[in-house]
Model the fold of this input.
Amino acid sequence: MFPKFSLLLCSALLAALSVPFPHSQERSHMNAKKITPILYAKDVEPCVKFWVDRLGFEKTVEVPDGDKIGFAILQKGALELMYQRLGDPKDDATLKLQAGQGPTYLYVEVDNLDATLAAMHGIEIVIPVNETFYGMKEFGIKDPAGHFILFAQPAASPKH
Done:
């Protein structure tokens, strides 16, 4: 079950992707070039290490925040992911953000689920490998910041 905030965010995103011209009866759709998740973390460093060491991503941008990483962009091919460090809890904007924050859920389709599972050695598997009714073989973990990541690959034979 997705948190209420996630449903509101999805609704807002869908609305933003089909914005009509103000003076036209016809709907005009913008062409989205990509959507990049921004995940918040108390500490960005372990998240960067997770994606780089285990999944072969490259850190393409790093913005320091004192002696820590405040922001990082990770990329692998056309895939991109951002991590932002949660700020000072005394900061009012940060408190508002943390109050509405829940874990994020990422669904990542991979070409080799067994290799991905092997790369997760030592990471707690929170959803064991299973085949779904919609024809995918999946498993889930939590990243170092507590976000859920469900890795999936089409199953050899879909369940009916």
In short: The mean pLDDT is 80. The two ends are 23 Å apart (CA to CA). The domain at 103-160 is CATH 3.30.720.110 (Signal recognition particle alu RNA binding heterodimer, srp9/1).
